[in-house]
Amino acid sequence: MYLLGYDIGSSSVKAAIVDAVTGECIASDFYPRQEAPIKALRAGWAEQDPAQWWQYLKEATASVLAMSKIEPSGIKAIGISYQMHGLVAVDREHEVLRDAIIWCDSRGVPFGAKAFAELGPDNVLPRLLNSPGNFTAAKLKWMKDNEPDLFERIYKVMLPGDYIAMRLTGEICTNPEGLSEYMLWDFSSNASADFLLDYYGFPRDILPQVGETFSEQGQVTAAAAAELGLAEGTPVTYRAGDQPNNALSLNVFNPGEIASTAGTSGVVYGINGTVDYDPLSRVNNFAHVNHTASQPRIGVMTCINGTGILNSWIRRNVAPEGMSYAMMNDEASTVAPGSEGISILPFGNGAERVLENRDIGCSFHGINFNIHRRAHLLRAAQEGIVFSFMYGIEIMERIGLPVNRIHAGNANMFLSPVFRETLASVSDAAIDLYDTDGAIGAARGAGIGAGIYKSPAEAFATLRRIDTVYPATDRTPYIEAYARWKECLARELAKEIK
């Protein structure tokens, strides 16, 4: 008995097959091999063709089926994780009307800001737990105002995971966690945020049908089965955005538990047991995968757009050709904490929520031509990413969510000793590293949704911890470097305000 998980990222699509009994991942692969292209037609824009996601999914599925050598009929449920906040619009024939406007696209910022100002914080925050910001609803408002002919042809709008589920099953549906990503879930009424739909002038039936996160959400159609090599009728039983799913993957379900990831973007995500919000809306609040009205589980998330993408930029533009990330990590480790005075602000991938939706760009500070070399830049980039995490963690702690222990997958930036040791030391939190990823988590989530597992505890009983990283005995150089980094940030923000 097996479970299939998909993780639809902006860099690649990953598939994993998990043995439902042992919890072992028996096959895993991703496509494309190089990072998937993101179209940037203008500064601050970011788009992808949803048909490409489907093509990558087909290739990843074929690979894991070939690796595992199992019969497709042995797969009893499918789970989907996906890049959050994207906008996919389809017509009545389920044809995509335009390229998806994805998570790191900033064009919705002014529309969200206008809605927040006109509707008022006292009206919006208790209901959405965030400002409308640059989320999916604001991106749809941009489309309404700038592409009215296309907007009039919309039958339904979807998140990237909803689109993949539609391609698998023919059904168009979502869940409260998904609608909270749009900023279209009203936590006060436990229903869609009709007040914001009306304000933006969206027809109420533009949203998909709302179901449960862990439930049967359709079955693989004959056409999809023929394309993918799966068994017709296989149920899709779980769906969540990548950060709630990452938390699930790391067995983070309960108040006070913290998860972190550092791929293209970087996130610290904690569970709050009360429905609360940051008055300045600098951290995001979403319905977690196990949220209910009677037992609130709010995912409080600080997100930094410029995380792995900064490290990959450094690799392309600073490191010599052929230098691997592992080699970059080794060279960075030859420099002492603090990078001898260099501070890098990693905000070069669009507007940052943690900076109140300001787009200040990436900047390098303190370079001395007589002292610094490539290794300093490699380390300072990783430290800058960590310090941006810490900036968000301080906001989370101020709204009552202490960060004492962090769960993370042993992947992406967490493979770097410099990165994880800096994060542990500046936050004074131990980091538990686990052998899992988003696709494996989605597969386990599918097992919960299908009733194969009676509880999350049963689903994650076999989750394996690889290592624990503890703060340095002497945290002083990390704390001093962070203080210097914050001074640089304060100066840049002051410039931006002027």
Give the C-alpha Rg: 22 Å
Q: Percent helix among the residues?
A: 25-40%
Molecular shape: globular
Distance between the termini: 61 Å
Low-confidence stretches: none
What does this structure look like?
This protein has 498 residues and is of the alpha/beta class. Helices cover 37% and strands 20% of the residues. The chain contains 17 helices and 22 strands. It has helices at residues 50-68, 109-119, 121-128, 136-146, 148-152, 160-169, 176-182, 194-200, 222-228, 242-249, 308-317, 325-332, 374-398, 417-427, 438-449, 456-459, 476-497; strands spanning 2-8, 13-19, 25-31, 47-48, 75-82, 88-90, 100-101, 156-158, 173-174, 185-186, 191-192, 209-210, 236-241, 258-262, 266-272, 284-287, 298-304, 343-347, 361-365, 405-409, 430-434, 465-469. Strands 16-17-15-14-20-21-22 form a seven-stranded mixed β-sheet. The chain has a five-stranded mixed β-sheet with strand order 3-2-1-5-13, sandwiched between helices. A two-stranded antiparallel ribbon has the order 4-7. Helix 2 (109-119) packs across helix 4, helix 12 (325-332) crosses helix 13 and helix 13 runs parallel beside helix 14. The longest helix has 25 residues, at 374-398.
